[in-house]
Specification:
Largest sheet: 4 strands, antiparallel
Strand order of the largest sheet: 1-2-3-4
Distance between the termini: 55 Å
Shape: elongated
Order of helices and strands: EEEE
């Protein structure tokens, strides 16, 4: 599933590694090396980077309930 990607280097100098993911996420991206010049507090060596895009999360909205008493005018 990783299609040959093993690691990547970010513009801040940090290095990422890619591994097989867990249920619900096909790939786990981990900060393999934190650059001394990186100022991003989210980059912690050895910890995974999470993807919070809405498309990957289950919906938090409740299903719309069809309201009774509403009729089209016309």
């Amino acid at each position: 599933m990783l299609k040959g990607f093993v690691n990547a280097k970010l513009s801040c100098g940090c290095r990422l590694s890619f591994r097989e993911g867990v249920e619900g996420s096909p790939v786990t991206v981990t900060i393999e090396y934190k650059s001394p010049t990186c100022v991003l507090s989210l980059h912690v060596q050895g910890l995974p980077v999470y993807d919070y895009r809405e498309a990957l999360r289950p919906s938090t909205r409740t299903a719309a309930i069809a309201g009774e008493g509403y009729e089209e005018e016309g």
